[in-house]
Amino acid sequence: MQDLFEIIIEGFQTLTLNKMRTGLAILGIVIGIGSVITLISLGQGSQKSIENQIQSLGSNLLTISPSRQNSGGVMGQSGGVTSLVLADAKAIEEKF
């Protein structure tokens, strides 16, 4: 037990002898911890914001986009990208 007490006393004496080094080490630790806390907070805030945006869309949202038709697993030239027209929207509305 005496050895532990002597080690602690010697450690504090070393810290007081090298004040500049001790101060810079403490400053580095404080800046590092602050940076980690800031990055974690930004990440959690961004995640919460994105989750709120997705939840605001609702559960009754259906996204439809035009696509190419595949011919035998290979993109065929005849099935190019087509645009959706109003008749397509009406047909989808009637179906759902």
Helix and strand topology:
Blueprint: H1 2-17, H2 19-57, E1 70-71, E2 74-75, H3 86-95
Antiparallel strand pairs: 1-2
Protein model, in words:
The chain folds into 2 domains: 1-59, no CATH class; 62-96, no CATH class. 68% of the residues lie in helices and 4% in strands. It is built from 3 helices and 2 strands; from the N terminus they run H-H-E-E-H. A two-stranded antiparallel sheet has the order 1-2. A hairpin with a 2-residue loop joins strand 1 (70-71) and strand 2. The model has no long low-confidence stretch (mean pLDDT 84). Residues 22-93 form the MacB-like periplasmic core domain.
Q: Tell me the Rg in angstroms.
A: 32 Å
Strand order of the largest sheet: 1-2
String of helices and strands? HHEEH
Q: How many helices in DSSP terms?
A: 3
Shape: rod-shaped
Pfam family, one: MacB_PCD
GO molecular function: transmembrane transporter activity
Protein name: MacB-like periplasmic core domain-containing protein
Keywords: Membrane, Transmembrane, Transmembrane helix
